[in-house]
Amino acid sequence: MSASDAGRDTIDPEVVTRLTRELGPRVTSDVRALEETRADASGHLSPGPPVAIVAAESVADVQAALRVATATRTPVVTRGAGTGAAGAAIAGPGEIVLSTTRMDRILDVRPDDLLAVVEPGILNGDLNAVLAEQDLWWAPDPASRDISTVGGNIATGAGGLLCAKYGTVRDAVLGMDVVLADGRMMRLGRRSVKGVTGLDLTSLLIGSEGALAVIVSATLKLRRRPPGSPHTVLATFATVREAAAGAAAVVVSGVQPAIMELMDAASLGAVHALLGLPAPTAGAAQLTIQTDGAAAGAEAAAIDSILRALGAETTLSDDAAEGERLLTIRRSAHAAMTALGDTLLEDVAVPRSSLPAMFDEIGRIEREYGLTIPTIAHAGDGNLHPSFVFTGPEVPDEVWAAAGDLFTSALRLGGTLTGEHGVGLLKRRWLADELGEDQWELQRQIKQVFDPLGILNPGKVFGA
Amino acid sequence: MSASDAGRDTIDPEVVTRLTRELGPRVTSDVRALEETRADASGHLSPGPPVAIVAAESVADVQAALRVATATRTPVVTRGAGTGAAGAAIAGPGEIVLSTTRMDRILDVRPDDLLAVVEPGILNGDLNAVLAEQDLWWAPDPASRDISTVGGNIATGAGGLLCAKYGTVRDAVLGMDVVLADGRMMRLGRRSVKGVTGLDLTSLLIGSEGALAVIVSATLKLRRRPPGSPHTVLATFATVREAAAGAAAVVVSGVQPAIMELMDAASLGAVHALLGLPAPTAGAAQLTIQTDGAAAGAEAAAIDSILRALGAETTLSDDAAEGERLLTIRRSAHAAMTALGDTLLEDVAVPRSSLPAMFDEIGRIEREYGLTIPTIAHAGDGNLHPSFVFTGPEVPDEVWAAAGDLFTSALRLGGTLTGEHGVGLLKRRWLADELGEDQWELQRQIKQVFDPLGILNPGKVFGA
């Protein structure tokens, strides 16, 4: 199974001609540019380059490209910065890439309504830098925030470190303009924070991974930055199960951290090695917790007590710079995994009380498949990122078998295949396991309502 | 236009026989019970009674009823407590009422996962009474919370007084089990707080007003009650426009009240009359604001300063009982409106900065149509409830004309027809004005995917 399922063997020779007639220099068939669109952060590579890239600069460009795609029945892969972790924006033979990275303007910022209207191609980090000048904040903070686009964040329903307290993308979008497969523009949602007129298509589009329509602008729900500076608790436990139980105890207490990250011994060891720090105690796992807002100090103290009572060694800091230093270890995890070899970064989520049980399952899978699976977790919302490390261009079958076991375990615990990365190419074969056959079919029919010819990101999410 | 559009003139004589064969004593054709289902809190009355009520006690009952409805092509109106304000649960000739009020069990409460699984018929207030024993809270708090069901809250996407800080139903549901029109059960969402597997049908069902499927259980996202007791600010302004500007200034400040309610002079006068209080100053309008949580005192003081600087006379209280007494005036508004005569309670929402402009529009409509339109507003989220008062069983045409003007004004300001009540019967003729014809048609096609025979609440929301 690969991206070639999505493409076609025979390409209408007129496609590039027609695109160029409509869109002139916004169309490129530059070989190196085409090559780049074969991959994303998933490590997956499509079997070959797409036919062309349309670098849209306006809604009209998106509409023109989709009209040509509809007329010629050509598949379209919408792509932002290409930082996705599930292969949803990977393009292959026979496909047009519709790039939104040049549509990167901020169209409106309203401090009085706590909203911003932006084009999809703006980077999350760039947007937040501009918003910060007005003491405003779009809370979604995927780890990729400095290199990923807002449109991509919305298309994947992205999460991040701050979700437990501040929600995901799903909680931070009021509306959006989309272009349908046939080129018609449609305005979803509204600028008011409440509204229940008709079906909530804004929510339906969030996380739809390019399969329903192309997002050409979004009305974002903003917040004020919480007052004061964060307090940080670093807690070290003898085992990962105890660290997971500690995180669960914090959830039960009702104290709401802004950040609660867990690192197991293998990921902690890899980061220490990468950063040249002394090796951590064998088997030890760590929680890095931050509280913020008016009650940050009291909340950090309460969390510290809870974790010490459970046997953790803790460090408590009210210094923002020291907190950022402590978080650096967690933020270096992705780089440390990559340094270990080729990786399949997984993304299951479970109910928060099941975090210890999920770590038991990961331990079992490590033993049964003879693998080491370094794992970090957004422990505040039960979202785990186990990394499967291997060598070579393709994920080995035994790694997929172990990953399949991981998914099944998460589902058995009431969780999900993917907490924040999406289905894309990588998890489509497990999609029906989670949804059930009936729902899988119903979702496909909803896709057909939006995209009757099946030209939007075919083979992704619902692909066979 | 009335509910009769939804029913049919000829009823399959076998429907009641078949229902009774499958469901025995759960089927009633008691005349008084049938009569009650012709109305809800909207003041609208269907042209005649439905054919039968199925009082489902289990998922299997719901499935059996829907299988009969499908086999006989009989329309089904799902109904909870009948407290809706838009006519979505009103039943008429030729229709089956599927009542969920007997499905009122709490199936699971998990303090460690901050979730509860409940059947749809439990009352919001009853659920929260049970949850409070474990220091848990389902935050959605429509004014009807003591008499409305959780299933109805979800089906309408209900709001309430606390939305600005704690969100609406949309922010408080992790998943649900639904039965499709043909009787198949489908499990949507999950028990983990994060998850992006496939399209977000849980969100799509929220606010779908019985048109897509029947909700038979819901997995609710809970919170801990905020610590401490609330602080209350009562602020009186010379005019409603100044009160609206005061509310907008609080939003801009970034201080987040839990409750921020606005009452204009007419609604304030009506409540004072109802409660036997001295008449308020002519033309004066009021904001009632509560802050809660760890910073409640500091936040109330900050809000008090902001509003005094804008010319308000304020009262500040840190006493919970006194706060509840001050809120009683606002909580009596609905009763006071009803005491004035027959009412059409409206529900537009606008971006928060447009609240003063929306009150200008209401003033213009009052003058142009020769009406008094007492208005209260959830000012923290820009949601206004203007009341049109009249005499008689039917809303007069001139009131509908004024209401239509109100809707158009809200849309022009970037808002919506309905912030929290839904479309139902009452607003279907304006639905396409907000959605646009293309989106209206696309939403209807999505309904057809769920309900190809069109038997679920026909004539509501998308009805002509």
Straight-line distance between termini of chain A:
8 Å
Largest sheet of chain A: 7 strands, antiparallel
- What is the CATH architecture descriptor of the largest domain in chain A? 3-Layer(aba) Sandwich
**Structurally, how many domains make up the residues of chain A?**
3
For the record, what CATH class of the largest domain in chain A applies? Answer: Alpha Beta
Number of contiguous helices of chain A: 16
| Total strand segments of chain A | 18
Work out the radius of gyration of chain A.
22 Å
Mean pLDDT of chain A: 94
- What overall geometry of chain A do the principal axes of the alpha carbons give? globular
Oligomerization category of the chains in this entry: homodimer
CATH superfamily of the largest domain in chain A: FAD-linked oxidase, cap domain/gating helix
> Percent range for helical residues of chain A?
25-40%
Which labels suit this protein?
homodimer, Uridine Diphospho-n-acetylenolpyruvylglucosamine Reductase, domain 3, Vanillyl-alcohol Oxidase, Chain A, domain 3, 3 domains, 18 strands, 19% strand, globular, disordered N terminus
Architecture overview:
The structure is a homodimer of 464-residue chains. Chain A has helices at residues 14-23, 31-36, 59-72, 124-132, 150-156, 163-166, 201-205, 240-253, 265-275, 296-309, 320-331, 333-340, 355-369, 397-412, 428-435, 437-450, and strands at residues 27-28, 52-55, 76-79, 96-99, 106-110, 115-118, 136-137, 173-179, 185-189, 214-221, 223-224, 231-237, 259-263, 285-291, 313-317, 342-345, 375-378, 383-390. Chain A is an alpha+beta fold and 464 residues long. Chain A has 3 domains: 3-102 and 446-450, 2-Layer Sandwich (Uridine Diphospho-n-acetylenolpyruvylglucosamine Reductase, domain 2), CATH 3.30.43; 106-224, Uridine Diphospho-n-acetylenolpyruvylglucosamine Reductase, domain 3; 231-412, FAD-linked oxidase, cap domain/gating helix (Vanillyl-alcohol Oxidase, Chain A, domain 3, 3-Layer(aba) Sandwich), CATH 3.40.462.40. In chain A, strand 8 (173-179) and strand 9 (185-189) form a beta hairpin. In chain A, helix 9 crosses helix 12 (333-340) and helix 15 (428-435) packs across helix 16 (437-450). The interface between A and B is large, with 84 and 84 residues.
